[in-house]
Design goal:
This protein is an alpha/beta fold. The protein has a single domain, classed as Rossmann fold. Helices cover 44% and strands 14% of the residues. It has a 4-stranded parallel beta sheet with strand order 2-1-3-4, sandwiched between helices. Strand 1, helix 1 and strand 2 form a beta-alpha-beta unit. Helix 1 packs across helix 5. The two termini are 15 Å apart. Bound molecules: iron/sulfur cluster. The site of iron/sulfur cluster has 11 residues, from helix 1.
Length: 126
């Protein structure tokens, strides 16, 4: 990971709702893309929901936490909020004009839009 996205006090983590809806899968694809691109570490939202102690600890100690939700139900960010895990950036796929269940699925294009949005916000906040 480059220094731009990780500082001495911790790491940048990305959580996704990984929902069954197309937009939930776009969220997860975007999180995976951020990880493979070295921008953040993809982290298990299910492990937080299960309140696994070491996972909660790591999430709380991170320098930045990004949540990508597939739709207005905001499942990912609600899990984090309910556990008192701070949230530094929140992106909602459907707020970007990407439908929850579109007729035409363009996973790579849509995930790329989400990733670019997050990268722009990361640069503004550094
Ligand atoms: S935020 Fe929307 S897409 Fe994601 S898990 Fe919840 S209902 Fe499904």
């Amino acid at each position: 990971m480059s220094d731009q996205y990780c500082c001495q006090s911790g790491e940048t983590l990305v959580f996704t709702c990984a929902g069954a809806a197309y937009s939930g899968q776009v969220a997860n694809h975007a999180g995976l893309s951020l990880m493979t691109g070295g921008k953040a570490n993809l982290f298990c939202i299910a492990a937080l929901a299960a309140e696994i102690p070491d996972k909660l600890d790591r999430a709380r100690k991170a320098s930045k936490r990004i949540a990508i939700d597939g739709c207005e139900d905001h499942c990912c960010s609600k899990i984090m909020q309910s556990l008192g895990v701070p949230l530094d950036q929140h992106v909602v796929v459907t707020d970007m004009g990407i439908e929850k269940q579109p007729e035409k699925m363009q996973m790579v294009v849509h995930a790329k839009r989400v990733v670019e949005n997050i990268k722009e916000n990361l640069l503004r906040s550094t």
